[in-house]
Amino acid sequence: MTVEFRLLGDVEVGFDGRLVDTGHTRQRAVLAALLVDVGRPVPADQLIDRVWADRPPYRARNALSAYVSRLRGVLTGVDGVRITRGPGGYLLAVDPLTVDLHLFRHLVSRGRAAEQPAEAAALYARALDLWRGDPFPTLDVPWFADLRTALEAERLAATLDRNDAALGAGRHAELIAELTAAAGAHPFDERLAGQLMLAQYRSGRQSDALATYQRIRRRLVEDLGSEPGPALRAVHQQILDADAGAPPVAPRARPSRGNIERRPTRFVGRDDDVRRVEEALRDGPLVTLSGVGGVGKTRLAVEVARRARFADGMWLCELAPLSDGTAVGHALAAALGVQQQQGLGIEQTITDYLAGRHLLLVVDNCEHVLDAAARVVDRIVRHCPSVAVLATSREPLGVEGERVVPVHPLPDSDAAALFADRAKAHRPEFGLDPGVAEAVGEICRRLDGLPLAIELAAARIRAMSATELAQRLDSSRLVHATRGAAPRHQSLVAAIDWSYRLLSEPERALFARLSLFAGGFDLDAAHGVCAEQGSAEEDTLDLLIGLVDKSMVIARHGAGRSRYLVLETLRAYGRDRLDEAGLADRFARRHAAHFTALAERGARAVQGPDERIWVERVLPDYDNLRAAFERAVADRDADLAMRLVTSLPELAHLRVGYESATWAERTLDLADPGHPLYAAAAGAAARGAWNRGDFARARALAALAGGRVPGRGTGRVAYPGDVLADVALYADDPGAALRHYSAEVERARRDDDPIRLVWTLYYVAVCHAVLRNPEQGLPAAEEAVRVADPTANPTAQSMARYALGLVLKKSDPERALALFDEAGELAASVRNFWWHGIALMERAATRAVHDDPRRACREFLDVLDHWERVGDWSQQWIALRYVVRLLARVDAAEAAVTLHAALGAAGRPSPLDAARPARVLGDERYAAASAAGRSLAGSAVVAYAREALSHHA
Asked: Is the dihedral of CA 780, 781, 787, 788 positive or negative?
């Protein structure tokens, strides 16, 4: 009996082509949730979140078990299909290609790897034909709604790839109608517009193609304030040049459009405020929303950002988790996904990255780090002409050109509507009939129209009527409960105080202790830090659910572990209660100890098969890790600081950025050099200096280890001797590096340490490649693969495949390309930006010489973007050398000479033999191109290279 599972439309199961009944909506939701993660265990609490969100039934685990049991009955007798339950949760085992979602992804992946356009187009068509409508349209809980949105984005990406392939196969005429409709639905999509222009032009409609370009250019300029990107301009120029036979030049998909998440609650009222903020943003690059805590500044800013249209997206940076202003730059960089560039400070890195981008940056909760936030924001608005900043703060930043928009409490009608909306979440039958409306109006007036206070009061509607609630507010003298503050702030503090006093004593204790978390927490952290000794995790969960129900804590449910957040105003109130009880220091130390232990567990796990799981587990707590480090330093607890900073090179350094290396450097000043972790801390600090391009500082820090070798399990990048060898490798002494790593290979063999052995074998192969005898590195690379695969560690497997590809790229380029693809996918799967980047780079370089130079141009555009975001200029210069060679290969002599001169001006070697392009260009053009290159510096070199590649992609 054959089975088909369908998610790309209504949830359906077919046996031999016949649909079977899979039960009612919730049961189908359980099936769909298991099919999305087919072959992987899904924890029971995660399934409950997916199926019921924040409204699980009584005894939800029993209900889930019943649904699973019924599904087992439906699937009984089907070969190869089973639902099991183990320590990790429920698992549905079946061939993934029997699920249309996974078959769709498989076909799209094959399409992207296909060599011939016609073959690729056929594979994309098969994939898109699997869609029967909106995925699981009857499942309306947040997890499925978010997944539905993400799948629609996958569908659009596959459609755009299909269009490219079909254009390459000459099917332009049959695409015109579909492309015209799609361009109408996505009027700002440059890639789609470029595809339509090519289809129109190649169907003999040149005037229509040019009109399409003018139409999208006008929209981009008028609505987004930006010109079309280089790829779309290249299509336009191709048409103007009547170059009908060239392969399609499709604009690359833009990078991520931002990190503004969909909010689970409805935005109520404030239409006039939204318009005021939008007008202010049109008038100037910096707008600050000011007002008292709880007035709704953050929600208004997020709503404005959600409605905005910026070509490079809308990005939110939350400063509330920071304890002081020293980390503002790092917080902004982390929000943007940017790593500190070599030789530059973090603020210069940010402005360099933003200088050529058109985006909206929302900087939230500036008031407690006002000076630092103002300094960074001022620098951004001065040096990044296409960036708009929307800040929220209880007071203005005081930056030149700042437009301050005061955010006032809600008017009566909007306040009542907000109360009713939030009350319905607790009592679905709640409505504003005349008697209730009067009581609600009284409640909102007593709370001065402050949204946070109103939401706290609405959470009580489950336990009492609106009239009773109004009477309780009156009897508690809420408005006058706090002296010495502005009246509206009195109302907010009093509303929080009233809600706090209505909590049970255990709820109060937990709420106050939760104020220690920076940037959110999960159940494990809440229990580990805040629970009384001997209490069960289920008790903590019950208390946490109670706080969520009463709107004192926000729950955020995603694809992974559920996380919780205390709003900053509530967090400050809770911290005051903790201070009053004299418990702040005690629980702050528990917080630091908990997150240090979490980092240690993660550091061990990321060197094994569960690397991805632990990266996703630990990285959301980066703000808590920072707070834990600062606490250890404040307490002068050198041992705790040492344990923490030596756990972060694997987890944070390769995935977040180089901030944790500065923590290691600070710890060296605190700790005794005899500490057993001192050498690892020196290695972590030295690696940070190396990444920043400060080789002298790297040598000095590595020397502090006194030649000691860190113990087994130390982060791969944190060996002081390796840092010294890498300095030699990049400073033109690869022989010294080879001698070091050859000796370390033997040490790793003696220690029976496979992770260390893969690392050292990898470097032996790299050193031989740099010394131009890659064949001598082949045995080391092959051994690295043999050693890495049994570890099932993605980073080790990625490194080994990269090393083998590197030594084979001249002798067996086809195999090398496949190895680089595997290496990149493995690194990306665990968010390892460094090894992902070098795999992308070597794949493009190999393709440029041995495969398809035009495709290599497109791939190098991605490489340049990657290293610009990562901020690793040592790799960016290598990429630019490859680009020079590639431009010469595609007969772009003028651009090659310009970049050749730019490399020379920066003191970097160039691979170009200038004699040939000098003959091609002639003396005058050659001199002009060289002068242009010498005038380029830093990011301007990258921008020029990007433009040149776009014309040949």
From this structure: positive
State how far Cα 414 lies from the chain centre.
Answer: 35
| The pLDDT of residue 786 | 95
Cα distance between residue 934 and residue 931, in whole Å: 5
Strand partners, 289: 392, 405
The residues near 528 (Cβ < 8 Å, ≥ 6 apart) are 590, 594
Asked if 67 and 22 count as a contact pair (C-beta separation under 8 A), the reply is: no
Residue 905 C-beta-side C-alpha neighbours within 13 Å: 17
pLDDT at 526: 94
What is the C-alpha to C-alpha distance for residues 307 and 856, in angstroms, rounded to an integer? Answer: 36
- 164 pLDDT above the threshold of 90: no
Beta bridge partners of 4: 14
Q: Look at phi and psi of residue 253 and say left if phi exceeds 0, alpha if psi is from -120 to 50, else beta.
A: beta
Amino acid letter, 562: S
State how far the Cα of 443 lies from the Cα of 710, in Å rounded to an integer. Answer: 63
Listed range (472-476, 543-547, 598-602, 921-925) with the worst mean pLDDT: 472-476
HSE of 934, CA atoms in CB hemisphere, 13 A: 6
Q: Which residue has the higher pLDDT, 673 or 310?
A: 673
Nearest to 781 by CA among 752, 754, 761: 761
DSSP strand pairing (387-393 vs 403-406): unpaired
pLDDT tens-place string over residues 660-684: 889 999 999 999 999 999 999 999 9
Q: Which region holds residue 501: left if phi is over 0, alpha if psi is between -120 and 50, else beta?
A: alpha
Most confident residue range from 140-154, 324-338, 623-637 = 623-637
CA dihedral 874, 803, 755, 605 (to 10 degrees): 70
Structure tokens at 173: 């005429």
* Helices within 752-872 (DSSP H only): 754-770, 774-791, 794-808, 813-829, 833-850, 853-870
Mean pLDDT of 765-793: 94
CATH number of 1-169: 1.10.10.10
Q: In what order do the strands lie in the sheet with 359-364?
A: 314-318, 359-364, 387-393, 286-290, 403-406
User: What is the token pair recorded at 244?
Assistant: 């009908």
Q: What are phi and psi of 171, to 5 degrees?
A: -100, 40
| CA 791/CA 754 separation, integer angstroms | 8
| Residue 882 · residue 841 · CB < 8 Å | yes
Q: Which amino acid is at 145?
A: A
Tell me what pLDDT residue 262 has. 66
Q: Where would I find the H helices in 502-559?
A: 505-514, 523-530, 537-549
Predicted pLDDT at 120:
85
User: For position 242, what pLDDT does the model report?
Assistant: 57
Distance CA 621, CA 263 (A): 21
Sign of CA pseudo-dihedral 406, 263, 316, 253: negative
Q: Per-residue pLDDT for 486 more than 50?
A: no
Distance from C-alpha of 387 to C-alpha of 850, rounded to nearest angstrom: 40
Q: How far is CA 687 from the centre of its chain?
A: 24
422 and 459 Cβ atoms separated by less than 8 Å: yes
Share of the chain above pLDDT 90, in %: 27
CB 658 within 8 A of CB 340: yes
The class level of CATH for 728-843 reads mainly alpha
Domain 271-406: CATH architecture, name and number where available:
3-Layer(aba) Sandwich (3.40)
Provide the sign of the torsion angle of the four alpha carbons 690, 694, 699, 705, taken in this order: negative
403 backbone dihedrals φ, ψ, rounded to 5°: -105, 120
Q: What is the average pLDDT across 806-815? A: 91
Beta pairing class for 403-406 and 286-290: parallel
Mean pLDDT across the stretch 688-696?
Answer: 82
pLDDT, tens digit (0-9, with 9 covering 90-100), for 488-543: 455 567 777 877 887 889 999 999 999 999 888 999 999 999 998 888 888 899 89
- Compute the distance between CA of residue 179 and CA of residue 795 in angstroms, rounded to an integer: 41
